[in-house]
Specification:
This protein is α+β, with helices and mostly antiparallel strands and 683 residues long. The protein has 26 helices and 19 strands. It is 52% helix and 16% strand. A hairpin with a 5-residue loop joins strand 10 and strand 11 (403-404). The longest helix is centred in the middle third of the chain and has 43 residues, at 408-450.
């Protein structure tokens, strides 16, 4: 008999297995075409259209819209030629295929196949890869995307075999996609293993666990998201929502595309058309590496969903709970009994999922057990690491699978080193700056005398030091009561940026230049913002050799110093609207703080200062994240919330950039939060 503690432990042990049973039931229920009535609240006619994607084929016959198929190809394609051939043999006329290849041998093979199908418009791009994009797949897609002639784009992997009515079904589904609120279309995938035993094991994992969990999550939890093997979208909508450059910063570009479309209010449709994907000859390293990569991507996409995977693997739960039998031996038999029963349920449910996909011969019990062993090991690895090996390169994966330069713990250590370096070297640099300010006064006077602003025989000149920074010296020149700001980008300030480049956030490091670059950046930034209609200080004179600029003195208050609540809320909303227009024009601030925007009470307008980091090659998410990041240290909680809401109200399209801003915040700025709090308090 069991004592009270053992009975309580048995109930506790049964909890994850009960969760396994519930998730298994949800997985099987998701296979039903009626399972998606949970929250979409669509009409009966709309549900019918989704259950049968061919219902409108007769209506769209003769209304074939142009379709562009983009196929990125890397590696030997000899085994996938019949997959590529299936794209040429479509029962559709108005389409083109663009291949983007990285090997010359593939180029020759594709040209030979294209010659057999002259009726299909075919373009082959060789070696034209955008190396500025971090995701290798998106970098290969980018040149083909730029050459696409049709609005409907189909991204299809090289190993995908499609049926002859593949494009016809896409045409039918896209015909009324806008009315149904659908922005993306993806397809069910059946992975076809080869004769090797490792390939069969991996195929069982993909066709049961991956397909079943994706189907369940899509129907009952977070909504459908596309699978990169086959993604369909309209380029006109895609340009409005995101860009290839933005998706290229993520490892799971398909998942991120689905999130961005969902933020824009558009759904993803999983088409009932089933496509096949040919698995290569699998080695042990190949299986482990790919399962680890996919596991890390799932972990970074959603920690909660990844933790839920534990309840879908009875073997993993059994191994984690087995140590409890060391001090309670009586639990071994009931625990093993529950595991055997759960494993039998997994075999049956896996067979149902495979039958739904149309898989062939039944898998052996050994293949299912071996796939669970592989999944258990790679699942644990996904919890503790963020580094993966992909296409010969080591990549660190951050939140939402964003590709980062280093993991979060290393960013925190960099912020600690930055503070230590400032503590050690700060007094020395401040002493140097004070001495240089005194030494620079004669040069500033000489600069003003050579300008048209000052006549030494008639005018009176007074020079006072304005609070600058470690990198710039600022003075106020008073000429007969007219004030001007004289800014000197001193050369010794280049050395103060050393620690920022070494330990600072990645995006901030890229914006820091030497004194000459910052000098010209101030002038160019002033011109770009002035051209965009922004109020900026008027430039009166400059000396490129000495790196000195004389500009208008702005008599106002920075936003972080305003004490009028009504004006503050109004200016934050107006700043958000102005920043949205600036980003739409392709210009970015790069160095966006509330202290850089001055409110001019008399003119009831605002003026933007410190323009040395304004650029045409920036990141809107960085501008937004940096502004909101420092905002949290300037005001009380209630006021900060209202100001943040006012800024977001003004910035049109913020919701579409929100996910990217969160990634930038967590990966590049959050480790420096405590340092920013100290710096803001000091300021």
């Amino acid at each position: 008999m069991f004592n009270t503690m053992e009975v309580g432990m048995m109930y506790l042990i049964a909890v994850p297995f009960v969760a396994f049973a519930v998730l298994t039931i949800l997985t099987l229920a998701s296979l039903s075409s009626r399972g998606d009535r949970r929250s979409t609240r669509r009409s009966r006619s709309s549900d019918a259209k989704e259950r049968d994607c061919f219902a409108s084929l007769a209506m769209t016959k003769g209304k074939e819209e142009g379709i562009t198929i983009i196929k990125p190809i890397k590696g030997d394609i000899s085994r996938f030629m019949h997959a590529i051939q299936s794209m040429f043999e479509q029962d559709y006329e108005n389409y083109e295929i663009i291949f983007s290849v990285t090997e010359r041998e593939n180029q020759a093979k594709l040209k030979e196949m294209a010659a057999r199908y002259p009726q299909v418009k075919t373009t082959i791009i060789y070696g034209d890869i955008d190396h500025a994009i971090q995701n290798p797949k998106v970098a290969t897609i980018m040149p083909a995307y730029n050459l696409a002639r049709y609005d409907i784009i189909v991204l299809s992997d090289a190993d995908v075999i499609v049926p002859r009515d593949y494009l016809a079904s896409i045409n039918a589904q896209m015909a009324d996609a806008k009315e149904r609120g659908i922005g993306l279309i993806s397809h069910r995938i059946r992975f076809v293993p080869n004769q090797s035993w490792l390939s069969r094991i991996y195929g069982v994992h993909l066709n049961t666990f991956i397909f079943g969990s994706h189907r369940m999550v899509s129907r009952f939890f977070k909504g459908a998201f596309p699978i990169g093997k086959s993604v369909v979208f309209r380029r006109s909508e895609f340009k409005r929502i995101t860009s290839m450059q933005e998706l290229g910063g993520y490892l799971a570009e398909d998942y991120m595309m689905g999130k961005l479309y969902a933020a824009a209010g558009l759904k993803t449709l999983i088409s009932p058309v089933t496509i096949r994907s040919m698995l290569p000859v699998c080695t042990f390293k190949f299986v482990i590496t790919r399962m680890m990569r996919w596991g890390i991507m799932r972990a970074k996409s959603s920690r909660k969903a990844y933790a839920g995977e534990l309840c879908l693997n009875p073997l993993l739960m059994y191994l984690l709970l087995l140590p409890t039998t060391l001090w309670m031996p009586g639990l071994f038999v009931p625990l093993t009994t529950i595991f055997v029963a759960a494993y039998f349920v997994k075999l049956v449910s896996g067979e149902i999922v495979r039958a739904h996909l149309g898989c062939g011969a039944r898998p052996k019990v050994f293949a299912t057990l071996a796939s669970d062993v592989f999944h258990a090991g790679t699942w644990l690895a996904g919890l503790v690491t963020s580094a993966i090996e992909w296409k010969g390169a080591k990549i660190y994966v951050g939140r939402n699978t964003r590709i980062v330069s280093y993991p979060a713990w290393r960013a925190f250590m960099k912020s600690v080193m930055l503070v230590l370096s400032v503590i050690v070297t700060g007094p020395f640099f401040f002493a140097i700056r004070t001495a240089v300010s005194i030494m620079m006064r004669p040069r500033i006077i000489d600069f003003l005398e050579r300008s048209d602003l000052y006549d030494a025989q008639k005018d009176k000149l007074a020079i006072s030091t304005l609070h600058g920074s470690l990198t710039n010296l600022a003075f106020i020149a008073d000429i007969n009561g007219s004030k001007y700001v004289v800014k000197n980008f001193w050369r010794f300030g280049d050395f103060t940026l050393f620690f920022d480049r070494l330990f600072g956030p990645k995006r901030d490091r890229s914006s820091l230049g030497n004194s000459q670059e910052r000098f010209w950046g101030e002038i160019e930034g002033n011109y770009m913002l002035s051209k965009a209609g922004w109020r900026v200080p008027e430039l009166h004179a400059y000396d490129a050799r000495a790196r000195i600029i004389c500009m208008e003195f702005v008599d106002g208050k920075a936003l972080d110093k305003l004490d009028d609540y009504a004006v503050l809320v109004r200016e934050f909303e107006k700043f958000g609207a102005d920043l949205a227009k600036l980003h739409e024009s392709g210009t970015y601030l790069g160095d966006n703080y509330a202290s850089h925007r001055f409110y001019l009470r008399e003119a009831d307008s605002a003026c933007q200062l410190d323009l040395e980091n304004v650029t045409k090659n920036g990141d809107p998410a960085w501008d937004l994240s940096l502004f909101l990041f420092y905002l949290q240290y300037l005001y009380t909680n209630s006021l900060r919330r209202q100001l943040r809401q006012a800024f977001i109200r003004g910035y049109r399209g913020f919701s579409m950039r929100m996910k990217r801003c969160i990634d930038v915040y967590h990966e590049q700025l959050a480790p420096y939060g405590w340092l920013a709090k100290v710096a803001t308090h000091y300021r």
